[in-house]
Amino acid sequence: xxxxxxxxxxxxxxxxxxxxxxxxxxxxxxxxxxxxxxxxxxxxxxxxxxxxxxxxxxxxxxxxxxxxxxxxxxxxxxxxxxxxxxxxxxxxxxxxxxxxxxxxxxxxxxxxxxxxxxxxxxxxxxxxxxxxxxxxxxxxxxxxxxxxxxxxxxxxxxxxxxxxxxxxxxxxxxxxxxxxxxxxxxxxxxxxxxxxxxxxxxxxxxxxxxxxxxxxxxxxxxxxxxxxxxxxxxxxxxxxxxxxxxxxxxxxxxxxxxxxxxxxxxxxxxxxxxxxxxxxxxxxxxxxxxxxxxxxxxxxxxxxxxxxxxxxxxxxxxxxxxxxxxxxxxxxxxxxxxxxxxxxxxxxxxxxxxxxxxxxxxxxxxxxxxxxxxxxxxxxxxxxxxxxxxxxxxxxxxxxxxxxxxxxxxxxxxxxxxxxxxxxxxxxxxxxxxxxxxxxxxxxxxxxxxxxxxxxxxxxxxxxxxxxxxxxxxxxxxxxxxxxxxxxxxxxxxxxxxxxxxxxxxxxxxxxxxxxxxxxxxxxxxxxxxxxxxxxxxxxxxxxxxxxxxxxxxxxxxxxxxxxxxxxxxxxxxxxxxxxxxx
Length: 583
Fold this sequence. Notes:
This protein is an alpha+beta fold. It contains 22 helices and 21 strands. Strands 2, 3, 4, 5 and 10 form a 5-stranded mixed sheet that branches. Strands 12-11-21-20-19 form a 5-stranded antiparallel sheet, sandwiched between helices.
């Protein structure tokens, strides 16, 4: 068997390759031209679009880019503090933080730790994250330590924003004066509301560029710094305010009363050294606040002043010459009829001098004094003492009281005007009226903002106007001192080591036009001057609806004694040369 001969390999030849069917050239000129045309058109379209964007829509796209990366940040202005006359803080803004979260970026496995740091439940945190918003506020007013702890957790989507929280160091003792702000730091009550524009200041600006992660990478121009709120300095003395509030609270508990107020004025200037109300509220704890507890009763509540107005009626009669200090008045054995109406005294005082009429608080004697005066004269005098006019305080809701036109007075109404019925005043108005008796006869308008904080055009208003003579004022001080000695109704207002003077008041509460007066509901009052020989303070006290004892001398007198005694010591006023013996 013979072997077949081996095939020799075909030698490489381009001409030979060209004859192979698979490698043969297939030319399609039209298809190639179409592809080139499409590619050229695509590049032309891109070039045209780029030109359109760069030239025609340039400004639009630049604006869109800046909108996403260039931002104007507001620099918050810090709210100014409120301080007392010596600079002690009454209201101040503390740095706090708001904790925000982005639900899309938030790591839900960290909800437990975050909730624990914020003193919230994990369910509450997750519930807030499921609101569908891009950014969610988890909690306001977080302290710096807690905010730092949350930052150290490095939870994706959780950020902290610097903010502030208003803090009131004096708590409820000065709450009705200072007031409070809302959660956005806007004044809502008291000085916080009255001086809100001055306290707020003006925010600043910062223009920045952010990267795609929201981080600030550069400032576009120098920032405009925030102008922080101004400091508002009050005439209040924090120490006397605390004293007045503590004594008022104790009196309300002692007499199971509904409410009460104390006003302490500087007798020489009319500046308010203390203005306390109870019940009060804690402006640092916003839960459970009510309009009743937040009402500044000493400024906005009005009432019939009762016998505390008698010194003003006597001063008017002395000034007009209708009465002399030694004039005698028959008190009609305790019952005096005017038409169908009968005026009563608590006892038969017989025939009394003007000083005795004031000391024993005879309604009949004062009714007769009021009747000797022309109605217009008495009305004008009361207006000069500030009755029926709102005190000039930058404070919301300051009451003007009510003093009816003299043309509408009936004879019995003119008589009751002499002992404090038929008109209404606030406690501050009565304290302000007594500043005229404490000095040379010049009324000192009440002031709450320290003098260097007031506008220059307020100076004339604050200087006061003369409403009685210096001689009459001195005569009334002697009568007011007699009213606090043995035989007077204000014996329990005496202060060891100091001579004082003042007038008690016990007024029925009005129960409405239909029912008249509530016979078993009273306001107990005392307005006094200390020391009477060198007046420094005017202190007015009102206790609303005391249970049991209700006479002004027994209920309000001791509060005056405690507040005035402590205030005189705090002010460094030396004891009087002659001390009245305590009854």
